[in-house]
Amino acid sequence: MKSILVTGGAGFIGSHLVRLLVNKYPDYRIVNMDVLTYAGNLANLTDIENKENYEFVKCDICDFEKVQKVFLDYQIESVIHLAAESHVDRSIKDPFSFAQTNVMGTLSLLQAAKFAWEGNYEGKLFYHVSTDEVYGSLGGEGFFLETTAYDPHSPYSASKASSDHFVRAFQDTFGLPTVISNCSNNYGSFQFPEKLIPLFINNICNNKALPVYGKGENVRDWLYVEDHARAIDVIFHKGKQGDTYNIGGFNEWTNIDLIKVMIKTVDRLLGREEGASEKLITYVTDRAGHDLRYAIDSTKLKNELGWEPSLQFEEGIEKTVKWYLENKEWMENITSGEYEKYYEEMYSK
Ligand code: NAD
Protein backbone atom coordinates (compact mmCIF):
# COMPACT_ATOMS: atom_id res chain seq x y z
CA MET A 1 0.00 0.00 0.00
CA LYS A 2 1.32 3.44 -0.92
CA SER A 3 1.19 5.70 2.15
CA ILE A 4 0.34 9.33 1.48
CA LEU A 5 0.45 11.94 4.21
CA VAL A 6 -2.16 14.69 3.78
CA THR A 7 -1.71 17.55 6.25
CA GLY A 8 -4.67 19.74 7.22
CA GLY A 9 -7.11 17.06 6.08
CA ALA A 10 -9.73 18.06 8.65
CA GLY A 11 -10.00 21.56 7.17
CA PHE A 12 -12.09 22.81 4.29
CA ILE A 13 -10.06 21.87 1.18
CA GLY A 14 -8.16 19.10 2.96
CA SER A 15 -11.36 17.21 3.84
CA HIS A 16 -12.52 17.30 0.21
CA LEU A 17 -9.12 16.06 -0.94
CA VAL A 18 -8.98 13.27 1.66
CA ARG A 19 -12.48 12.13 0.65
CA LEU A 20 -11.51 12.07 -3.04
CA LEU A 21 -8.28 10.12 -2.44
CA VAL A 22 -9.77 7.61 0.03
CA ASN A 23 -12.67 6.80 -2.31
CA LYS A 24 -10.75 6.85 -5.59
CA TYR A 25 -7.62 4.98 -4.52
CA PRO A 26 -8.46 2.00 -2.27
CA ASP A 27 -4.86 0.80 -2.61
CA TYR A 28 -3.42 4.01 -1.10
CA ARG A 29 -3.29 4.49 2.65
CA ILE A 30 -4.29 8.12 3.33
CA VAL A 31 -2.84 9.42 6.59
CA ASN A 32 -4.51 12.65 7.63
CA MET A 33 -2.29 14.72 9.95
CA ASP A 34 -4.13 17.58 11.60
CA VAL A 35 -3.83 19.30 14.98
CA LEU A 36 -7.52 20.33 14.86
CA THR A 37 -7.32 24.10 15.34
CA TYR A 38 -10.61 26.05 15.34
CA ALA A 39 -10.69 25.42 11.54
CA GLY A 40 -10.15 21.65 11.73
CA ASN A 41 -13.27 19.56 12.18
CA LEU A 42 -13.49 15.78 12.05
CA ALA A 43 -17.23 16.15 11.40
CA ASN A 44 -16.14 17.05 7.84
CA LEU A 45 -15.07 13.43 7.32
CA THR A 46 -17.72 11.24 8.97
CA ASP A 47 -18.58 9.52 5.66
CA ILE A 48 -15.08 8.09 5.25
CA GLU A 49 -13.72 7.86 8.81
CA ASN A 50 -14.22 4.08 9.02
CA LYS A 51 -12.69 3.24 5.66
CA GLU A 52 -9.81 0.79 5.84
CA ASN A 53 -7.42 2.95 3.85
CA TYR A 54 -7.90 6.02 6.07
CA GLU A 55 -5.98 6.97 9.23
CA PHE A 56 -6.21 10.11 11.33
CA VAL A 57 -3.23 11.31 13.35
CA LYS A 58 -3.60 14.29 15.64
CA CYS A 59 -0.28 16.11 15.32
CA ASP A 60 1.05 19.65 15.09
CA ILE A 61 3.16 19.98 11.92
CA CYS A 62 5.54 22.17 13.95
CA ASP A 63 6.29 19.29 16.33
CA PHE A 64 9.29 18.01 14.40
CA GLU A 65 9.93 14.89 16.51
CA LYS A 66 6.34 13.76 16.32
CA VAL A 67 6.21 14.45 12.58
CA GLN A 68 9.37 12.36 12.11
CA LYS A 69 7.77 9.52 14.03
CA VAL A 70 4.69 9.63 11.77
CA PHE A 71 6.93 9.37 8.69
CA LEU A 72 8.54 6.26 10.20
CA ASP A 73 5.43 4.62 11.68
CA TYR A 74 3.43 4.92 8.47
CA GLN A 75 6.34 4.61 5.99
CA ILE A 76 5.19 7.82 4.28
CA GLU A 77 6.12 7.92 0.59
CA SER A 78 4.51 11.20 -0.45
CA VAL A 79 3.15 14.33 1.20
CA ILE A 80 0.33 16.62 0.14
CA HIS A 81 0.68 19.59 2.45
CA LEU A 82 -2.36 21.77 3.13
CA ALA A 83 -2.17 22.45 6.90
CA ALA A 84 -2.00 26.18 7.45
CA GLU A 85 -3.44 29.17 9.18
CA SER A 86 -5.57 30.38 6.30
CA HIS A 87 -7.61 33.47 7.19
CA VAL A 88 -6.18 36.86 6.15
CA ASP A 89 -8.08 38.82 8.84
CA ARG A 90 -6.64 36.60 11.57
CA SER A 91 -3.14 37.10 10.13
CA ILE A 92 -3.53 40.86 10.58
CA LYS A 93 -4.41 40.37 14.27
CA ASP A 94 -1.84 37.63 15.00
CA PRO A 95 0.95 37.32 12.42
CA PHE A 96 3.15 35.21 14.74
CA SER A 97 0.92 32.14 14.50
CA PHE A 98 0.98 32.42 10.70
CA ALA A 99 4.78 32.49 10.57
CA GLN A 100 4.88 29.61 13.05
CA THR A 101 2.45 27.25 11.29
CA ASN A 102 2.88 28.23 7.66
CA VAL A 103 6.65 28.78 7.61
CA MET A 104 8.09 26.73 10.49
CA GLY A 105 5.48 23.99 10.07
CA THR A 106 6.31 23.62 6.37
CA LEU A 107 10.02 23.55 7.20
CA SER A 108 9.43 20.86 9.80
CA LEU A 109 7.66 18.68 7.20
CA LEU A 110 10.36 19.29 4.58
CA GLN A 111 13.12 18.29 7.03
CA ALA A 112 11.17 15.22 8.13
CA ALA A 113 10.71 14.15 4.49
CA LYS A 114 14.38 14.72 3.73
CA PHE A 115 15.52 12.66 6.77
CA ALA A 116 12.97 9.89 6.27
CA TRP A 117 13.73 9.46 2.58
CA GLU A 118 17.54 9.78 3.07
CA GLY A 119 18.20 10.88 -0.48
CA ASN A 120 16.36 7.86 -1.92
CA TYR A 121 13.75 9.86 -3.75
CA GLU A 122 12.49 7.20 -6.15
CA GLY A 123 8.66 7.31 -6.09
CA LYS A 124 8.61 10.14 -3.52
CA LEU A 125 6.95 13.56 -3.77
CA PHE A 126 6.42 16.57 -1.53
CA TYR A 127 3.41 18.47 -2.90
CA HIS A 128 2.82 21.92 -1.40
CA VAL A 129 -0.63 23.50 -1.74
CA SER A 130 -0.44 27.27 -1.93
CA THR A 131 -2.43 30.34 -2.86
CA ASP A 132 -2.58 32.93 -5.66
CA GLU A 133 -2.28 35.62 -2.96
CA VAL A 134 1.53 35.24 -3.06
CA TYR A 135 1.49 37.12 -6.38
CA GLY A 136 0.06 40.32 -4.85
CA SER A 137 -2.57 42.46 -6.49
CA LEU A 138 -3.56 43.08 -10.12
CA GLY A 139 -5.05 46.21 -11.66
CA GLY A 140 -8.03 45.93 -14.01
CA GLU A 141 -6.10 43.91 -16.62
CA GLY A 142 -3.96 40.79 -16.80
CA PHE A 143 -3.64 37.48 -14.99
CA PHE A 144 -1.22 35.76 -12.61
CA LEU A 145 1.03 33.31 -14.45
CA GLU A 146 3.35 30.73 -12.89
CA THR A 147 6.18 33.12 -13.75
CA THR A 148 4.65 36.19 -12.07
CA ALA A 149 7.01 37.63 -9.44
CA TYR A 150 5.96 37.20 -5.81
CA ASP A 151 4.62 40.35 -4.14
CA PRO A 152 2.65 39.37 -1.02
CA HIS A 153 0.89 42.10 0.96
CA SER A 154 -0.77 40.44 3.95
CA PRO A 155 0.95 38.49 6.77
CA TYR A 156 -1.00 35.45 5.49
CA SER A 157 0.29 35.74 1.91
CA ALA A 158 3.80 36.63 3.14
CA SER A 159 3.84 33.42 5.21
CA LYS A 160 2.59 31.33 2.27
CA ALA A 161 5.15 32.96 -0.06
CA SER A 162 7.89 32.13 2.41
CA SER A 163 6.75 28.50 2.63
CA ASP A 164 6.74 28.27 -1.19
CA HIS A 165 10.34 29.54 -1.21
CA PHE A 166 11.39 26.92 1.35
CA VAL A 167 9.84 24.15 -0.75
CA ARG A 168 11.75 25.32 -3.86
CA ALA A 169 14.93 25.68 -1.78
CA PHE A 170 14.66 22.02 -0.69
CA GLN A 171 14.20 20.97 -4.32
CA ASP A 172 17.22 23.01 -5.45
CA THR A 173 19.51 22.36 -2.49
CA PHE A 174 18.75 18.75 -1.56
CA GLY A 175 17.05 17.42 -4.69
CA LEU A 176 13.86 16.73 -2.71
CA PRO A 177 11.18 16.07 -5.35
CA THR A 178 8.57 18.79 -4.96
CA VAL A 179 5.66 20.35 -6.79
CA ILE A 180 3.65 23.49 -5.90
CA SER A 181 0.21 24.68 -6.93
CA ASN A 182 -1.19 28.16 -6.38
CA CYS A 183 -4.96 28.32 -6.38
CA SER A 184 -7.58 31.05 -6.37
CA ASN A 185 -10.41 31.43 -3.81
CA ASN A 186 -12.35 28.24 -3.11
CA TYR A 187 -15.99 27.84 -2.16
CA GLY A 188 -18.20 24.86 -1.33
CA SER A 189 -19.38 22.69 1.58
CA PHE A 190 -17.54 22.38 4.92
CA GLN A 191 -15.91 25.83 4.77
CA PHE A 192 -15.45 27.54 8.13
CA PRO A 193 -17.96 30.41 8.30
CA GLU A 194 -15.40 33.18 8.82
CA LYS A 195 -14.77 33.02 5.06
CA LEU A 196 -16.92 35.18 2.80
CA ILE A 197 -19.32 32.70 1.18
CA PRO A 198 -20.40 30.59 4.21
CA LEU A 199 -20.36 33.71 6.42
CA PHE A 200 -22.77 35.49 4.12
CA ILE A 201 -25.03 32.49 3.52
CA ASN A 202 -25.31 32.04 7.29
CA ASN A 203 -25.97 35.73 7.91
CA ILE A 204 -28.60 35.98 5.16
CA CYS A 205 -30.39 32.95 6.64
CA ASN A 206 -30.32 34.53 10.10
CA ASN A 207 -31.18 38.08 8.95
CA LYS A 208 -27.84 39.36 10.22
CA ALA A 209 -25.87 42.30 8.75
CA LEU A 210 -23.63 41.49 5.76
CA PRO A 211 -20.34 43.32 6.44
CA VAL A 212 -18.84 44.36 3.08
CA TYR A 213 -15.26 45.70 3.08
CA GLY A 214 -14.86 49.17 1.50
CA LYS A 215 -17.18 49.52 -1.47
CA GLY A 216 -17.20 45.82 -2.29
CA GLU A 217 -15.11 46.45 -5.41
CA ASN A 218 -12.36 43.89 -4.75
CA VAL A 219 -12.27 41.15 -7.36
CA ARG A 220 -11.63 37.47 -6.67
CA ASP A 221 -11.57 34.42 -8.94
CA TRP A 222 -13.77 31.68 -7.42
CA LEU A 223 -13.31 27.94 -7.84
CA TYR A 224 -15.54 25.12 -6.59
CA VAL A 225 -13.60 23.20 -3.93
CA GLU A 226 -14.14 19.77 -5.51
CA ASP A 227 -12.56 21.10 -8.70
CA HIS A 228 -9.53 22.17 -6.65
CA ALA A 229 -9.33 18.68 -5.11
CA ARG A 230 -9.47 17.15 -8.63
CA ALA A 231 -6.70 19.49 -9.77
CA ILE A 232 -4.51 18.43 -6.83
CA ASP A 233 -5.13 14.77 -7.74
CA VAL A 234 -4.10 15.42 -11.36
CA ILE A 235 -0.99 17.42 -10.41
CA PHE A 236 0.03 14.89 -7.75
CA HIS A 237 -0.07 12.06 -10.30
CA LYS A 238 1.00 13.79 -13.51
CA GLY A 239 2.73 17.05 -12.54
CA LYS A 240 6.35 17.62 -13.47
CA GLN A 241 8.76 17.46 -10.56
CA GLY A 242 10.03 20.91 -9.51
CA ASP A 243 7.22 22.65 -11.38
CA THR A 244 4.50 25.08 -10.36
CA TYR A 245 0.86 25.01 -11.54
CA ASN A 246 -1.71 27.77 -11.19
CA ILE A 247 -5.27 26.62 -10.52
CA GLY A 248 -8.22 28.92 -11.16
CA GLY A 249 -11.74 29.10 -12.47
CA PHE A 250 -11.54 32.01 -14.98
CA ASN A 251 -14.46 33.19 -12.87
CA GLU A 252 -14.00 36.74 -11.57
CA TRP A 253 -16.51 38.47 -9.32
CA THR A 254 -16.48 41.77 -7.45
CA ASN A 255 -17.40 41.09 -3.82
CA ILE A 256 -20.58 43.13 -4.09
CA ASP A 257 -21.84 41.28 -7.20
CA LEU A 258 -21.04 37.97 -5.56
CA ILE A 259 -22.98 38.98 -2.45
CA LYS A 260 -25.98 39.88 -4.61
CA VAL A 261 -25.89 36.44 -6.26
CA MET A 262 -25.84 34.82 -2.81
CA ILE A 263 -28.73 37.00 -1.62
CA LYS A 264 -30.76 36.07 -4.68
CA THR A 265 -30.06 32.35 -4.29
CA VAL A 266 -30.68 32.16 -0.53
CA ASP A 267 -33.85 34.30 -0.72
CA ARG A 268 -35.23 32.14 -3.53
CA LEU A 269 -34.46 28.87 -1.75
CA LEU A 270 -36.01 30.18 1.49
CA GLY A 271 -39.11 31.38 -0.38
CA ARG A 272 -38.43 35.04 0.43
CA GLU A 273 -39.26 37.91 -1.90
CA GLU A 274 -36.47 38.43 -4.48
CA GLY A 275 -33.74 40.74 -3.16
CA ALA A 276 -35.43 40.99 0.26
CA SER A 277 -32.10 40.53 2.04
CA GLU A 278 -30.28 43.32 0.18
CA LYS A 279 -31.17 45.58 3.09
CA LEU A 280 -28.67 43.56 5.18
CA ILE A 281 -25.68 44.86 3.18
CA THR A 282 -23.54 47.00 5.51
CA TYR A 283 -20.38 48.68 4.24
CA VAL A 284 -17.51 48.52 6.78
CA THR A 285 -13.97 50.00 6.87
CA ASP A 286 -11.81 48.26 4.27
CA ARG A 287 -9.35 45.55 5.32
CA ALA A 288 -5.80 46.96 5.77
CA GLY A 289 -3.63 46.22 2.69
CA HIS A 290 -6.65 44.76 0.86
CA ASP A 291 -5.51 43.54 -2.58
CA LEU A 292 -7.75 44.88 -5.34
CA ARG A 293 -7.87 42.00 -7.79
CA TYR A 294 -6.69 38.40 -8.10
CA ALA A 295 -7.08 36.52 -11.36
CA ILE A 296 -5.40 33.25 -12.22
CA ASP A 297 -4.37 32.02 -15.63
CA SER A 298 -4.57 28.22 -15.39
CA THR A 299 -3.88 27.56 -19.09
CA LYS A 300 -0.69 25.63 -18.30
CA LEU A 301 -2.62 23.14 -16.17
CA LYS A 302 -5.19 22.72 -18.92
CA ASN A 303 -2.68 22.37 -21.76
CA GLU A 304 -0.14 20.14 -19.98
CA LEU A 305 -2.29 18.02 -17.67
CA GLY A 306 -5.78 18.36 -19.15
CA TRP A 307 -7.50 19.79 -16.04
CA GLU A 308 -10.43 22.18 -16.33
CA PRO A 309 -13.09 23.32 -13.83
CA SER A 310 -16.12 21.05 -14.16
CA LEU A 311 -18.80 23.27 -12.72
CA GLN A 312 -20.34 26.56 -13.85
CA PHE A 313 -20.37 29.13 -11.04
CA GLU A 314 -24.20 29.42 -10.90
CA GLU A 315 -24.46 25.65 -10.44
CA GLY A 316 -21.70 25.60 -7.82
CA ILE A 317 -23.27 28.41 -5.79
CA GLU A 318 -26.68 26.72 -5.92
CA LYS A 319 -25.17 23.43 -4.67
CA THR A 320 -23.23 25.27 -1.96
CA VAL A 321 -26.17 27.29 -0.64
CA LYS A 322 -28.34 24.16 -0.58
CA TRP A 323 -25.65 22.29 1.36
CA TYR A 324 -25.47 24.98 4.07
CA LEU A 325 -29.27 25.14 4.29
CA GLU A 326 -29.45 21.34 4.67
CA ASN A 327 -26.60 21.16 7.19
CA LYS A 328 -27.65 23.70 9.79
CA GLU A 329 -26.42 21.49 12.64
CA TRP A 330 -22.89 21.45 11.23
CA MET A 331 -23.00 25.24 11.07
CA GLU A 332 -24.52 25.67 14.53
CA ASN A 333 -21.91 23.41 16.13
CA ILE A 334 -19.07 25.62 14.93
CA THR A 335 -20.67 29.03 15.19
CA SER A 336 -21.27 28.73 18.92
CA GLY A 337 -18.69 29.29 21.67
CA GLU A 338 -15.26 30.66 20.71
CA TYR A 339 -16.30 31.62 17.21
CA GLU A 340 -19.15 33.76 18.53
CA LYS A 341 -16.65 35.80 20.59
CA TYR A 342 -14.31 36.19 17.60
CA TYR A 343 -17.20 37.29 15.36
CA GLU A 344 -18.35 39.94 17.83
CA GLU A 345 -14.80 41.28 18.12
CA MET A 346 -14.32 41.43 14.33
CA TYR A 347 -17.64 42.87 13.22
CA SER A 348 -19.24 44.66 16.14
CA LYS A 349 -17.40 47.97 15.47
P1 NAD B 1 -8.59 25.65 6.64
O1 NAD B 1 -8.25 26.79 7.55
O2 NAD B 1 -10.03 25.33 6.41
O3 NAD B 1 -7.91 24.31 7.17
C1 NAD B 1 -6.60 24.29 7.65
C2 NAD B 1 -6.40 22.97 8.38
O4 NAD B 1 -5.05 22.92 8.83
C3 NAD B 1 -7.30 22.78 9.59
O5 NAD B 1 -7.86 21.50 9.61
C4 NAD B 1 -6.35 22.98 10.77
O6 NAD B 1 -6.74 22.26 11.93
C5 NAD B 1 -5.05 22.47 10.18
N1 NAD B 1 -3.88 23.03 10.86
C6 NAD B 1 -3.63 24.33 11.13
N2 NAD B 1 -2.48 24.47 11.81
C7 NAD B 1 -1.97 23.22 11.94
C8 NAD B 1 -0.79 22.68 12.52
N3 NAD B 1 0.09 23.48 13.13
N4 NAD B 1 -0.58 21.36 12.46
C9 NAD B 1 -1.49 20.53 11.87
N5 NAD B 1 -2.61 20.97 11.31
C10 NAD B 1 -2.86 22.29 11.34
O7 NAD B 1 -7.84 25.96 5.29
P2 NAD B 1 -8.26 25.68 3.78
O8 NAD B 1 -9.08 26.81 3.31
O9 NAD B 1 -8.77 24.31 3.67
O10 NAD B 1 -6.85 25.78 3.06
C11 NAD B 1 -6.00 24.64 2.96
C12 NAD B 1 -4.72 25.03 2.25
O11 NAD B 1 -5.04 25.53 0.95
C13 NAD B 1 -3.95 26.13 2.96
O12 NAD B 1 -2.57 25.83 2.84
C14 NAD B 1 -4.29 27.40 2.18
O13 NAD B 1 -3.23 28.32 2.23
C15 NAD B 1 -4.48 26.84 0.78
N6 NAD B 1 -5.42 27.60 -0.08
C16 NAD B 1 -6.68 27.91 0.37
C17 NAD B 1 -7.55 28.59 -0.48
C18 NAD B 1 -8.96 28.91 -0.07
O14 NAD B 1 -9.67 29.59 -0.81
N7 NAD B 1 -9.44 28.45 1.07
C19 NAD B 1 -7.13 28.95 -1.78
C20 NAD B 1 -5.84 28.60 -2.19
C21 NAD B 1 -4.99 27.91 -1.34
Write the layout of secondary structure elements.
Elements: E1 2-7, H1 12-24, E2 28-34, E3 54-58, H2 64-73, E4 78-81, H3 88-93, H4 95-117, E5 125-131, H5 155-174, E6 178-183, E7 185-187, H6 196-205, E8 210-213, E9 219-224, H7 225-238, E10 244-247, E11 252-254, H8 255-269, E12 281-284, H9 299-305, H10 313-326, H11 328-335, H12 338-347
Parallel strand pairs: 1-2, 1-4, 2-3, 4-5, 5-6, 6-10, 7-9, 8-12
Antiparallel strand pairs: 9-11
Describe this structure in words.
The chain is of the alpha/beta class and 349 residues long. It has a domain at 2-187 and 222-247: Rossmann fold. 43% of the residues lie in helices and 17% in strands. It contains twelve helices and twelve strands. The chain has helices spanning 12-24, 64-73, 88-93, 95-117, 155-174, 196-205, 225-238, 255-269, 299-305, 313-326, 328-335, 338-347, and strands at 2-7, 28-34, 54-58, 78-81, 125-131, 178-183, 185-187, 210-213, 219-224, 244-247, 252-254, 281-284. The strands form three sheets. It has a seven-stranded parallel sheet with strand order 3-2-1-4-5-6-10, with helices on both faces. Strands 7-9-11 form a three-stranded mixed sheet. It has a two-stranded parallel ribbon with strand order 8-12. α2 (64-73) runs parallel beside α4 and α8 packs across α10. The model has no long low-confidence stretch (mean pLDDT 95). Residues 7-8, 10-14, 34-37, 39-40, 60-62, 82-86, 101, 105, 129, 131, 160, 183, 185-186, 192 line the site of nicotinamide-adenine-dinucleotide. It comes from Labilibaculum manganireducens. This is dTDP-glucose 4,6-dehydratase. One of its GO terms (molecular function) is dTDP-glucose 4,6-dehydratase activity.
